[in-house]
Amino acid sequence: MPATKLSKAAQDHASRVFDLDVSSLRELNQALHNLTPGSNETAWEVLHPKGNHSVAVGVDQPVTIDVRGSVGYYCAGMNDGAAITVHGSAGPGVGENMMSGSIVIKGDASQYAGATGKGGLLVIEGNASSRCGISMKGIDIVVHGNIGHMSAFMAQSGNLVVLGDAGDALGDSIYEARLFVRGKVESLGADCIAKEMRPEHIELLQGLLDRAGVTGVKPSEFKRYGSARTLYNFNIDNADAY
Amino acid sequence: MCGIVGLFLKDKSLEPKLGSMLSQMLISLSDRGPDSAGIAIYGAPSKNEAKITIQSAKPDRDFRGLDAELAKAIGAPVSIAVKSTHAVVRTAPNKVDAAREALQSIRPDVRIMGAGEAVEIYKEVGLPEAVVDRFDVRSMTGTHGIGHTRMATESAVTTMGAHPFSTGADQCLVHNGSLSNHNNVRRELRREGMTFETENDTEVAAAYLSSQMAHGKNLGEALEGTLSDLDGFFTFVVGTKNGFGVVRDPIACKPAVMAETDQYVAFGSEYRALTKLPGIDNARVWEPEPATVYFWEH
Predict the structure, then answer these.
(1) Which of A194, B173, B294, B296 has the smallest set of CB atoms within 10 Å of its CB?
(2) Domains, in order of start, for chain B
(3) Which is the catalytic residue, given B1, B2, B265, B286?
(4) pTM for the whole structure
(5) What is the ipTM of this complex?
C-alpha cells in the first residue's frame, strides 16, 4: 500500500527518539550498533539519560546523536564516525578511545575525558577535570574552560587545546602530542616544556578552533607545550635511581 | 568501588522527606557496591535526651527486657525502639557513658553503632534496597544524612565493616577508596586513648577526625588535616550534629559530584544519584576539586 510506504519513508528520515525512561540503555545501544552503511536513520535523539553509563558507545556509522541531559561514565566511547552532542555534562571517560567523528559536551566533563583517543574531535564547552586526554593517541580535544591535574599524561599524539587554565603536572611523560593553553598552567609534568609557536602551529591551532566552532579567540593568545624528549632513552647516569 | 551519598537540607519543608530522598540516592548506586550498605540520619537534636544506636545478631534475645535492665544498671530512665537488628536506646545525655559501659556487661554481644543527640546509624550486609527496607529508612525525618554502599577491599564483609563509621558523639563518616597508612595512624590514635571496633581503614579516618575535633578543631580544619596525615585514596563525606563536609585526596581518582540549590546541598559518587532530587535541572552541579575541603553547617 503506497500510503504505508510513504509514511515509513517519512519516519526513516525523521529523528529517531529513544526515551531512556521508557526504553533500556541496551535497546538504544543495540539499535545504534545495528545501523548499516547508508541507513536512512541518520538522526537520533536520546531523552532522559539521567547519568546512565555507556550511552551511545561503540557507534560506527556517521549519524548524529543528540543526548538531552547529563550522562555518566564512558558516554560515546569508541565512537567511530558519529557526531554526538551531549546537552548536559558528562561523567568519567567520555569519548574514551574515540576513533573518528565528533563529540560535543555542552556542560562539563569529569575525569579522563578523551582518554586513549585515536582520532576525531572532542569539544568540551565547560570545564574538564583531571587526566583530560590521558594517553591520547591522535585525538583532538578542545576545552572551552579549564582542565584538571595530570592532563595529557603520557600523551602520544594529537592536539589538546585549552581556552582556560590547566592544573598541576600538565603533560607528564608526554611523547609527541601538542598542547595549547591560553590561560595559566599550574605546573608542568616531567619532560613537558613550553615551546615556540611557529607559523605552522598558529595555522594548526586556527584550524582546530574553527573545527570546534570557537570564535573571538586568536591562536596567538595561546602558549604551546610539548615533550623535551629527555625520557625517550634511558640515561645511564640515572641507573642509581633504580 | 563503593558508592557514597550525602544530603544536607537547607529547606525545613523537605525534612520529612530526608529518609526517602537519601534512600533513593543510595539505591541508585547499588551496582557500585553490593555487599553491605548503611545510612546515618540526623534528626532534630534534643538537649534532654541522647540516643545510642545498638546492633545485635540476635535481636530477639538481646533487646528483650533490655530497657528495664539498662535503666536499673545506670539508675536513670531508658527507652528502646527496636528496628530489626538495630535498636535506638534513649536516655539522659549525662548517662551515655554509663549506658555504654553497662551494655558491655549485661549484653556483651551487642555492638554500638553510634551515639549522640541527633544521629541514628543503621548498617547491615546486603543491597542498599534491602537495608533501607529492613530499617524503614524511607520514613525517617531529619536535617541531614549520609549513606554508603560497599564493595569491600580492606577488611571483611560484616555488619561492623559496613559504613558509616562513628567514633565520636554525633560524628560519622563514609569513605570511597582505601587508606595505606591506617595501621600506623590507628596505633597513634590508640596511644591517645581512642578505641577501635574493627581492622577497617575507614574507621581510622573517622577516629582521626574525632580526635582532631576533640582537640578543638572545627569540621573544616579536621578535614584539612586528612590531606597531610592520611595516605591513600579517599573521598570522604562526613556528618556532625549540625554539619556536613566533603574532601577528596589530591589525586582524586574516586568520583564525586555535588549539587546545590536554595533547598539543599547534595553529594553523590555519580550524577545518577542526584537525578531525582527536586530542582536538580536548575541546581548548581559541580565536581569537588581535589584536596579541597567543603563544609556546611546549620
Answers:
(1) A194
(2) 3-42+128-297 (3.60.20.10), 46-117 (3.30.2130.10)
(3) B2
(4) 0.93
(5) 0.91
